Amino acid sequence: MSTAAARERSSSAGLLSIGQVLARLAPEFPTLTSSKLRFLEVQGIVTPVRTESGYRKFSPADLERLRLALTLQRDHYLPLVVIREYLADVDAGRDPATPASAPPPSIVPAPRRYRREELLAATGAAPQLLNDAVSTGVLAGADAYTDQHVAILRALVALDRHGIEPRHVRTLRQSAERDVTLVESALAPLLRRTDAASRARANELAPELAKRLEELRGIFVRDALERRST
Fold it and tell me: Is the pLDDT of residue 10 over 60?
């Protein structure tokens, strides 16, 4: 063995080739390729050393950086620029919060809150109607109310004009709770998974299933009304 080859082998002791890195990470990231690893190097996520022959060699620390970056990409959909900044803070000895744990900035204004008097004024409800709605469980009692409470109480005001009281519609809330149980049961295979993609898919499907149940309930009600009017 030549002196140069011996020196190169000695300097690479404990380091991993790109093929070995792929083999270590493949169980967690089966679609990972050598091209993706080279791309992550170009993006500054890792900086493997080069042998005299030009081969990349990755340290155990490089392997963990790659695992972290790929996890943040896969499970939290973070762009590489955010991941790179996070790793730079770690390298500088700072203790940054993991990007995935930081809530994204929101451009949606905070929901308005209503005191009891404001809720009554916004809906035109009588105090007793609000008391009845809370006592029957149709409306949750609270120190501050939201726009959803406003919508519910406005509906109750309209129904009350026709003699339909909160106690009469209590079963609607109970039915809604049963719908939620039904939706959760249907989505259980997704909800049991821990990956972010499955959770996101469940969150996407839940409103759609709820909408279909609501459409079906409306059809049943209209059908019953038509049968009684004939």
Answer: no
